[in-house]
Amino acid sequence: MTVRIGLIGAGGMGRAHVERIENELAGGRVVAVADLNLDAAKEVAEPLGATAYGSGAELIADPDVDAVLVATFGKVHAPDVIAAVEAGKYVLCEKPLATTPQDCIAIMEAEQKVGKKLVTVGFMRRFDPGYQEMRATLASGELGYATLVHCRHRNPSVPEGYVTRNMIDDTAIHEIDTCRYLLDEEIVSVRVDAPRSTSRRFDHLRDPLVLVARTESGVLIDDEVNVNIQFGYSIECELVMEAGTIRLGDQNTTVTRDSHGNRNPICRSHVDRFHTAFNQEVQQWIRAVERDEHTGSTSWDGYAATCVVDAALESLESDGREVTVSTIDKPAFYA
Ligand SMILES: NC(=O)C1=CN([C@@H]2O[C@H](COP(=O)(O)OP(=O)(O)OC[C@H]3O[C@@H](n4cnc5c(N)ncnc54)[C@H](O)[C@@H]3O)[C@@H](O)[C@H]2O)C=CC1
Ligand SMILES: O=C1[C@@H](O)[C@H](O)[C@@H](O)[C@H](O)[C@H]1O
């Protein structure tokens, strides 16, 4: 069976997903594209022979669409995700699932009403081979339990429209989910420190920031978010256990050695650093839809991450006070 996919949001991520579905992955075809900017939808749809729509609602109602990929802005994800769930269609929704806990709860309620897990959140790092190995090492127990996780999320630069809260709700949300995934437990409190800002930023931005979070069992996580680092896209993570540590390797597999020393190329963006992870994420989603199964992170994962984001934003607004993460009880449906 070929999974007939409808894409909502024909921007950067939407186009990157279309490209991989059409040219790198198996089992799926993009049959419809929706964007509020109908010209953008047409530009993506026409070369594929797909139908273009001016709204997500029309695309979701199309009987030729089996499954929906949502790649619009986070704050407008919820209505389309809920409509797709109510139509009984599987959804791969780019991160964040939604920008408020209330919207995430509405998504979880819709899913529970339908009685089936239909929503996967686009936390693609869960499909990165490095993070997967780190998780397996911890789970094996060979090096004992985890005590600390050190993370660094560095982007070369960000556009002017990117504001300070995006350091957390758009960027650090990846480490929030990744640490929950690695440690298999919830984050219960968080604070945000704001060191001296770099001059290489737009004036309105506080950059860098450091999130310091604590999990249920007491693991301490620190995450340096630094989005105008200039030199490239650099993601680092080290998990400290009782009898050893494991960290992500550097960005590429080859290292040049010459009279300047040892060096490897630096990635420019998430697109090249997480190419394999994105492909795995979307490929496994397509295969799971074929089998009528859920894969990847759930709506609960999207909700839990958004609650940590909210607590971190509250800390940022209150000069770095430690804030307790407040959530509803986890529904048995997501156990
Ligand atoms: N996993 C990752 O590493 C990354 C994930 N993302 C996520 O992907 C999503 C999209 O981001 P980008 O592609 O960078 O944004 P973008 O701005 O390039 O594209 C968004 C598109 O959605 C359309 N749109 C907005 N509201 C809409 C609505 N209600 N209905 C239909 N179309 C609508 C816009 O017209 C635009 O074409 C965001 O949730 C973002 O956080 C983005 C970059 C990397
Ligand atoms: O999700 C992403 C972007 O939205 C975000 O703006 C970047 O900071 C991240 O590195 C990227 O993975």
Q: Give unreliable regions as ranges.
A: none
| Tally of contiguous helical segments | 10
Number of domains: 2
Q: Which oligomeric form is depicted?
A: single chain
Pfam families: GFO_IDH_MocA, GFO_IDH_MocA_C3
Catalytic activity: myo-inositol + NAD(+) = scyllo-inosose + NADH + H(+)
Domain GFO/IDH/MocA-like oxidoreductase: 131-247
Family: Belongs to the Gfo/Idh/MocA family.
Which secondary structure elements does this structure contain, and how are they paired or packed?
Elements: E1 3-8, H1 12-23, E2 28-34, H2 38-45, E3 51-53, H3 56-61, E4 67-70, H4 77-86, E5 90-94, H5 101-114, E6 119-122, H6 129-140, E7 146-154, H7 166-183, E8 187-193, E9 209-215, E10 220-226, E11 234-241, E12 245-247, E13 256-258, E14 261-263, H8 270-273, H9 275-290, H10 299-317, E15 323-324
Parallel strand pairs: 1-2, 1-4, 2-3, 4-5, 5-6, 7-10
Antiparallel strand pairs: 7-11, 8-9, 8-15, 9-10, 11-12, 13-14
Helix pairs in contact: 4-5, 5-10, 6-7, 7-10
